[in-house]
Amino acid sequence: MASDETRRALSRAFHELTLNLIGLFELYEADPELVEGAAEALGKVYRAHLQQRPSAPRGRGREAMDVLLDEMEAAGNAA
Amino acid sequence: MGLQYVRRALKTELRAETSMKLFDETKKRYPVLAEHETPLSVLAVLGDESERRWAEREALTRTLVTEEQERPHPLWAALLLAAYYPMLSRLRHRIYGDDLDPEDFDQLVVSTFLEVVRAFPLDQRRDRTCMHLRQMTQRRVFRHIREEHAARVLIAPDDISEMPPFAPEAWPGVPKPKRRRHRAGADPVDDREAVELLTSRAACLGQDQLDLVITTIVRGERLRVYVNRTYSDRGADERDRIYQRLKRQRSRTLTRLRGLLADLRCPRSVGGGLCPTGPEKEEASDGQ
């Protein structure tokens, strides 16, 4: 089990990575399926490392990364 | 600089090592930037229009505007342009008319936005920066278009092809010139050669533009006659608008054609003309 400090560092890293990917997908006008697939994969890794449960239904298309970011921010506020 | 260029420019900027160094340096001066490891996450926040991120978006926008005013760099301009791309694109699509080219409209929107950013009164406008940027850009763009339209209406030069033919015989003592055969009756083989030349050398101009040039320049049909013939089902006002639009399109096409066919220009002859005279041609062939 990771310490609180490690969890916070991991949360920040996932949050920053998600923001970067949102910017990148926006810039390159990424295909919605790619965005959805990336959000699903990133969400799985995030939840597995931080023992989180999905707090909201999975986002669809271009919204998927934003939904994941909301989930991370909600978990960060709750912690 | 078109709107699509904005994204390409930012992609280039984000790959540049100097931009990353600049971003890291600038982060030290602004806490709001320090939260972001790369400009990409700044872009993500700026692109999030939800109310939850309003304050962060406002702070980031003011930071980028400050930097662009005090230490201008393509990275800040590109970031702002990319972040405001949806707004600029919506504004661009609200504009229509014949006064400017579509590409000119794009360029107008982009350059006006950057002008507004560089002159934005940060001291006077302390909040709702995003809204003010949008409103000021819109006002300037529409003012520019109104001015452009007014200038065109005032000038409205007549097309030389629509002027009545020059009649020198009307002057006493001037011999009646030989009647020129109308270009519409030119040898079809000549037409075909010209058409083939244009089609092969200037295909990039688009078939519609080429057809217009071929019909009105190569075959000599007057533009007004062409419009009346082609758009006979339209009202007189609409035909007039079409005529004005096609006239401008044809001018632009001819300008581009000159560039595409520049290598075919004849050398200036001794007599001052553009092509060699008969004796010059003979001399040239004798010398070979």
Features:
heterodimer, A: 79 residues, mainly alpha, 3 helices, B: 288 residues, 2 domains, 65% helix, elongated
Radius of gyration of chain B: 28 Å
Helix-strand pattern of chain A, N to C?
Answer: HHH
The largest pleated sheet of chain B is described as: none
Overall body shape of chain B: elongated
Secondary structure: helix percent of chain A: over 70%
Average pLDDT confidence of chain B is: 78
Structural class of chain B: mainly alpha
Distance between the termini of chain B: 49 Å
Question: How would you sum up the global shape of chain A?
Answer: globular
**Total beta-strand segments of chain B:** 0
Low-confidence stretches of chain A: none
Approximate helicity band of chain B: 55-70%
Q: Are there runs of chain B of 5+ residues with pLDDT below 50, and where?
A: 184-188
Give the ordered list of helices and strands of chain B: HHHHHHHHHHHHHH
Number of spatially distinct domains of chain B:
2
Biggest interface in this structure? A-B, 12 and 17 residues
In percent, how much strand structure appears in the residues of chain A? under 5%
Major beta sheet summary of chain A:
none
Count of helical regions of chain B: 14
